[in-house]
Amino acid sequence: MKHICQAVAAAYPEIKLYALLIDERPEEVTDFKRSVTAKVHASSSDESYAHYARVADNLLQTARRQAGEGQ
């Protein structure tokens, strides 16, 4: 997934790029954030399923709002 984010960022530097990581180890989240220019939203493996859903929903709402604003 890192390679996909890097490729999209290189091909389309003007877009806002988001990455959603669910059920990842905290050190994997840190590594991912350091490796890509995407805005990373993550929920690590030590968090509840309800938290996973909140993180995903928050990102979806953010993306919808920004798309609606033409960003």
From TrEMBL:
UniProt signal peptide: none
Gene3D superfamilies: P-loop containing nucleotide triphosphate hydrolases
UniProt record, GO biological process: DNA-templated transcription termination
GO molecular function, one term: ATP binding
Record PANTHER family: TRANSCRIPTION TERMINATION FACTOR RHO
Protein name stated in the entry: Uncharacterized protein
Organism from which the protein derives: Vreelandella aquamarina
Lineage per the UniProt record: Bacteria, Pseudomonadati, Pseudomonadota, Gammaproteobacteria, Oceanospirillales
